[in-house]
Amino acid sequence: MNYIDTHVHLFVQAFAGDFDAVVERARKAGVERMMIITTDEEEAYRAMPFVEKDPYHFQLAYGIHPQRISKVTDEMIRKCDEIVRDPRVTAVGEIGLDYITDKERKDLQKEVFIHQIETAVSLNKPILVHSRKAIQDTYDIMKAHPSRGLMHSFGGSVEMGREFMKLGYYIVYGGAATYLNNRHAKEVVRDMDLRYLLTETDAPYVTPEPFRGERNEPCNLPYILRSLAAYRGIPEEELAGIIEENYRRFLGETA
User: How many alpha carbons lie under 13 Å from residue 247 in its C-beta half-sphere?
Assistant: First the structure.
């Protein structure tokens, strides 16, 4: 089986000591393609030559993460716009709203989110959306500013999942979907149109069972897909094939 990791922070410090080994373990585990998320300029510039060597297996995303909102300046926004225009950058993200981290700057978060959506649309690049305790505001913005993309680490209800899919957005699950108390993930996966399902690890964060508490890696993706297939009641091989096709469609490689 081939696995797809739509969200991995491969260039963070946590992987600096064994980067090559992490990539090799992912390859051996069957992780076919990875979207590398970068959240600062230095990360993005280090990742560019890496993805340029193998643009099929590795894609690159960059954006101003909502957790960085307190540090946002006009120059940071200008530089972000410049970076995402680079042809080596496939997607704009992760971007969005996070009312846990900074609920005092909601208006600024919304302003920066909308700007990045509009930039992505102008470049015909998809967006990767982060939303924590802000699902309704996230939805309202995305409905008012149509684009294409995915909902990273989706934590919403069945009803919200349906609404995002009506807008054309993919729903993405990672390690948290393997946790016994994640009722929403089970309900959404059982209900949803599987043409909108994607997988991620968010490594080195959000480690799935049975490795919870350890550093997460892309090679753990099979455990995530196994849980999703069990929730849906279909063979893992079937779901892996669906997700692989979904990712190709997400990237615009197929209609």
Answer: 25
- Strands of the sheet containing 91-98, edge to edge, are 3-8, 31-38, 58-62, 91-98, 127-132, 149-151, 170-173, 197-199
Nearest one of 58, 125, 114, 57 to 90, comparing CA atoms: 125
Instruction: Domains for the chain: give ranges and CATH numbers.
Output: 3-250 (3.20.20.140)
- What separation in angstroms does the CA of 143 have from each of 11, 91, 133, 164, 240? 32, 19, 18, 9, 29
Question: What is the pTM (predicted TM-score) of this model?
Answer: 0.97
CA nearest neighbour of 154 among 113, 196, 216: 196
Q: What is the pLDDT of residues 62-112, one digit of tens each?
A: 999 999 999 999 999 999 999 999 999 999 999 999 999 888 999 999 999
- How many other C-beta atoms lie within 10 A of the C-beta of residue 109? 27
Write the CA distances from 187 to 81, 155, 161, 192, 211, integer angstroms: 37, 11, 10, 9, 23
